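job 3f2a | input accepted
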Amino acid sequence: MADIKFGDDERDRVVERLEQLKNIKLKPVGNKKKFLKGSDGLYYCIVGGSGDWHAIPKEVMEQEKKDYASVYLVIARWLKTQIEIYEGLLKPLFDSRRSLSRTRQGDFQFYLKTPTDGILSIMKVPGAKFKKVDEFVDPVSRFKTLPEEKQREILAKANLK
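job 3f2a | predicted structure (161 res):
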């Protein structure tokens, strides 16, 4: 089976969860699904992944430059069948942006440290601390971890080939 990745399905569930937790509505800024503005007037960047590697779109860093310290970074740590959500200000990453390597698209990449007591830190970024705000079992993610044959069998039974 191909390596499964954190995608739009998982991000959509994280957005729904944040909207419930904060009692807000989130709308994309431009055409970026990772960058949203809340009905509370704040900006949110939602990044997710199944490993320790994550990246922040360069457009988000540009927004941070305009409205210093106004972007909240939400890190969805995907553990195949559940998703942990961490939140904190983007400011420490913005301040350390020169020490972060860049992707071919110009996005800023970073690596997570193993969380301790509900706090997530980022390698090479002093002062970056993200508090765990939620975790939930993700049935679609669980489905994606099944062998392809089992997935086809379930879809056939549901008449969703």
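job 3f2a | The mean pLDDT is 85.
job 3f2a | closed
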